[in-house]
Design a protein that fits this description.
474 residues, globular
Length: 474
Amino acid sequence: MSIWLPILVLLSIIFVVISTVRWRLHPFLALIFASYLFGLLSGTKLSEIVKSIADGFGGTLSSIGIVIAAGTIIGTFLEKSGGVLSLAEFVLKITKRKNVPLAVDIIGYMTAIPMVCDSGFITLSPLNRVLTKRAKLSLSTTTIALSLGLYATHTMPPTPGPVAAAGILGADLGLTIMLGFLASIPAVIVGWLFSIKVASKIYIEPDDESTDEGIKERLKEAPSVFKSLLPIILPIVLILLKSISDLQTMPFGNGGFREFISLVGHPITALLIGVVIAFTMPKKLTRDVISINGWVGDAIFRAGSIILITAAGGAFGKVLQNSGIADIVGTSLSKANLGIWLPALIAAILKTAQGSSTVAIITTASLLSPLMNSLGFSSPIAKALTVVAIGAGSMIASHANDSYFWVVTQSSKMDVKTGYRLHTFGTLLQGLASVITVWIMSLFIIDIDRRGDSNFCKLERNHLPSFLLTNILD
């Protein structure tokens, strides 16, 4: 049985990949079916299989369901109100239109925080074509700058996939966001450099029919930059404040203020506050906007699929956990000394094989959930770094089995061969840059840990203030 369980895990992964790619089965059903198959073939009692799936599904749903739904509502309001265009115009004013590739790279980076990259690319494509014509550039240059800018934050918190992984692994969301931000910076830089050094060598004529009249009309109706940024930034700040408040050193004391921060900084409350603020973005908030058939209804529909896939991943993870595989696989993997490369490697394999970064992130988190203690990833900072490593690995690489690949290529008159040369290779470089960054961060954190304790897995929250202060002051 000790050999059979790891083989079953591998077969389960293969089943998820084949069923979603070749049979086009929805990932929700693929993960649920994989849970049942693993449970049955591992010899688990039927009643325990059902209980594990129900507990894993419900537990995951309770921790991240509202968070994902609220985040999707904010993103939808930002898209439909024209807030994305306001942010784009703001960035362009800062760059003074002298460096369009850098501008669209940053615009994409900011846009993918509340929106999925597919929607963000489609929303920003008209603006991108106008800017490309004005700057007399190849459409390939700005298209890749935009697509890679969006991609840099697509797999990093606080986007839905990494938030779900944080919930599955029990990672502190505030700490995960901080580490994810650090890991995403090299990715966005690589995206910009790749666009101007490589993508610029292939010329694609911008759409001759593109005009900026429609953009200007939408900007007249769009909310201000402050209104567009506030529902994104404020929830993140509140979540980070709660993470600081929860430190054992109690920097905010132990009174009413700490309780208040714990309330408003809880991810559910913080994102709901962001939703309320997002209601101020439309020029006129009507019943149609907030109804089941309006913007809110559209957002809930979009969020539903992500939430169900995430909960199914939690069910799969619970079945694995209850099978006792942690003791068997965890010991073997810990001896391999892969460290933080392991979650990144698993995520990269799953992403490349089946196409969806979200599915890769959730499946990887579910696989690692019962193994965290065995692998030495039991401390708060280790859990957060694991989530970021999974996100970095899931950047590798977007190709023909990824819907985003086709959105980018078909929206920019790019053939498949060029798409592989530019978009796929660019996402590969981005992913490698982020994974290497996470690895370097883990070495640095281990070094900090050795000053206070000899074991990485024993890094506790009372060491975290010195870690943060050392980074800030240095």
